[in-house]
Amino acid sequence: MTRLAARGAAWLALLVIALAFVGPFLWVLVASVQPEATLAATPTLTFSLANFEAVLTWETIILPLINSIVISGATALLTVLVAGLAAYPLSRYQLRYRRPFMLTLLFTTGLPMTAVLVPVYAMFFRFNLYGSVPAMVLFLTASALPFSIWMLKNFMDGVPVSLEEAAWVDGAGWVRSLRTVVGPLMAPGIAVVAIFVFVGQWGNFFAPFVLLDTPDKQPAAVTIYTFFSEYGQVAYGQLAAFSVLYTAPAVVLYVAVNKYLAGSFTFAGSVKG
Amino acid sequence: MTVATAPSPLVTGTPPGGPSRRRRVLRRLLPLGPALVLLALFLAGPILWSVYIAFTNETLTGSASVNSRFVGLDNFVRLFGDPNFINSFLLTFVFVVGSAVIGQNTLGLIIALLQRGRGRVTRSVVNGVVIAAWVMPEIVAAACWYSFLAEDGTLNTVLGISQEWLYTAPMVAVILANIWRGTAFSMLVYSAALSEVPADLVEAAAVDGAGPARRLLHITLPLIRRSIMANLMLITLQTLASFGLIYALTGGGPGTASQTTPLYMYEQAFRYFEIGYGSAIALVMLVIGALFSLIYLRLIKVEDA
């Protein structure tokens, strides 16, 4: 009997927690399909896609989403390329400074990137890089590298060296060995890191907010903030529709890598990246 | 630090190298090149430079923008006597302790504990909504909470009161929003940790007559203490630098009532273009972050470095 009561109590507590978590984003979902939505939580029984139509214009959402895809995509691709190369010697050779180097990388992942942006901004200003999207992508790549090298090195350790030896016998150097043997074998790992970096940059607000100068270069993270501060009160339904369109890709990509990410939360005994 | 000398998964064979030893070593290190260049130019460089400009009167406007000069410890003397900085520092402390150490950490642990032994459907529904709040971009999370806390928004409607939360209790609002947004991380960490607690150990204690509270306090929690400490360090690091959520929700206001250190740093460096002073604030944040990061490294066992 007490067992049953305990079970019921646990179930009830979970229900309350789930409801509390649903609360804040419920209204965004509802408001996005309510043509006359305001901040007030008074849904009516109308359904319309008018809000989506209203925000689906070039300047409001299409260009910002393209910018987001370009910035996040370029950062993700460059990161896995550079981190994948760096992971090869770290995984394959006995290097004298490997352990301190890896520990430094892990240490760097803990540093507040918000604080690093002040000197980066000053540096960009001095070298005329302020407002440059490629320069910002290089900074974002650098900030994603410590974590990505760490992850990819661990994935690469899982690819047996014996598989490469055949390629070496055939006269292949590390470039070909990495490209034709190791790369394809760790493709899932590369995809996980790429998606992780992509989703991270997709939501990144501060870096483009301070490093880019004109609205036409801004990714959706900044555009939605501008929209929110200008029209948040009056066009709440449209803000909600914007939120839904901007959030959807992040959710889809998260679901895609969810299975692989689950393992990275077990750092009870050791860090496996 | 526990230096685990795990058998390294290293090569037995050797990839083809150059003729002389030095050239072979260089060629082996070649793939590290692009990463080292990027890290040096865009991460290590700026951090070191912030150490330098924190001791200058560098600004982006006015005469000091052309020829900034060395001002010694002036920025730091000003910083520690600046009531706005002290205020931001205290608010950051309240924000980190309230939303991360107490909020996310405890709630994440509670959810993970409650989920043990529940059915698959219950678990995936709860996981789904908690993780959805986490995956959402921070500005969208802010928009959600803005409407949730609005005067005639969902919370007031449910509670049947009228209250301008963002004006009357801005810190409570941002703390709640950040608990909502970040709990998923702690929940995932604790779910993973709890799944490694041997069930027979807990059952044996139950047979010996230990109630649920004692089993939790004397068996489960001590077994996952490493995860608890590591989690606390990680969420502290994440919360310390949190900017977008607070900035979009309250903008640090009303007045400076919710202006945490990252927001104060933003105001000084990017609104008033006081780069030297802003760098001094950034440096303080980096030093605090570095300390927590070092504690984190000591707490976990790093095997595969």
TrEMBL record, chain A:
<dbReference type="InterPro" id="IPR035906">
    <property type="entry name" value="MetI-like_sf"/>
</dbReference>
<dbReference type="InterPro" id="IPR000515">
    <property type="entry name" value="MetI-like"/>
</dbReference>
<keyword id="KW-0813">Transport</keyword>
<keyword id="KW-1133">Transmembrane helix</keyword>
<comment type="similarity">
    <text>Belongs to the binding-protein-dependent transport system permease family.</text>
</comment>
<protein>
    <submittedName>
        <fullName>Carbohydrate ABC transporter permease</fullName>
    </submittedName>
</protein>
<dbReference type="InterPro" id="IPR050901">
    <property type="entry name" value="BP-dep_ABC_trans_perm"/>
</dbReference>
<feature type="domain" description="ABC transmembrane type-1">
    <location>
        <begin position="65"/>
        <end position="257"/>
    </location>
</feature>
<feature type="transmembrane region" description="Helical">
    <location>
        <begin position="64"/>
        <end position="88"/>
    </location>
</feature>
<dbReference type="Pfam" id="PF00528">
    <property type="entry name" value="BPD_transp_1"/>
</dbReference>
<feature type="transmembrane region" description="Helical">
    <location>
        <begin position="185"/>
        <end position="203"/>
    </location>
</feature>
<feature type="transmembrane region" description="Helical">
    <location>
        <begin position="100"/>
        <end position="124"/>
    </location>
</feature>
<keyword id="KW-1003">Cell membrane</keyword>
<feature type="transmembrane region" description="Helical">
    <location>
        <begin position="130"/>
        <end position="152"/>
    </location>
</feature>
<feature type="transmembrane region" description="Helical">
    <location>
        <begin position="235"/>
        <end position="257"/>
    </location>
</feature>
<keyword id="KW-0812">Transmembrane</keyword>
<keyword id="KW-0472">Membrane</keyword>
TrEMBL record, chain B:
<feature type="transmembrane region" description="Helical">
    <location>
        <begin position="126"/>
        <end position="148"/>
    </location>
</feature>
<dbReference type="InterPro" id="IPR000515">
    <property type="entry name" value="MetI-like"/>
</dbReference>
<feature type="transmembrane region" description="Helical">
    <location>
        <begin position="89"/>
        <end position="114"/>
    </location>
</feature>
<feature type="transmembrane region" description="Helical">
    <location>
        <begin position="168"/>
        <end position="190"/>
    </location>
</feature>
<feature type="transmembrane region" description="Helical">
    <location>
        <begin position="29"/>
        <end position="55"/>
    </location>
</feature>
<keyword id="KW-1133">Transmembrane helix</keyword>
<feature type="domain" description="ABC transmembrane type-1">
    <location>
        <begin position="90"/>
        <end position="296"/>
    </location>
</feature>
<comment type="similarity">
    <text>Belongs to the binding-protein-dependent transport system permease family.</text>
</comment>
<feature type="transmembrane region" description="Helical">
    <location>
        <begin position="275"/>
        <end position="297"/>
    </location>
</feature>
<feature type="region of interest" description="Disordered">
    <location>
        <begin position="1"/>
        <end position="20"/>
    </location>
</feature>
<keyword id="KW-0472">Membrane</keyword>
<feature type="transmembrane region" description="Helical">
    <location>
        <begin position="228"/>
        <end position="249"/>
    </location>
</feature>
<keyword id="KW-0813">Transport</keyword>
<protein>
    <submittedName>
        <fullName>Sugar ABC transporter permease</fullName>
    </submittedName>
</protein>
<dbReference type="Pfam" id="PF00528">
    <property type="entry name" value="BPD_transp_1"/>
</dbReference>
<dbReference type="InterPro" id="IPR035906">
    <property type="entry name" value="MetI-like_sf"/>
</dbReference>
<keyword id="KW-1003">Cell membrane</keyword>
<keyword id="KW-0812">Transmembrane</keyword>
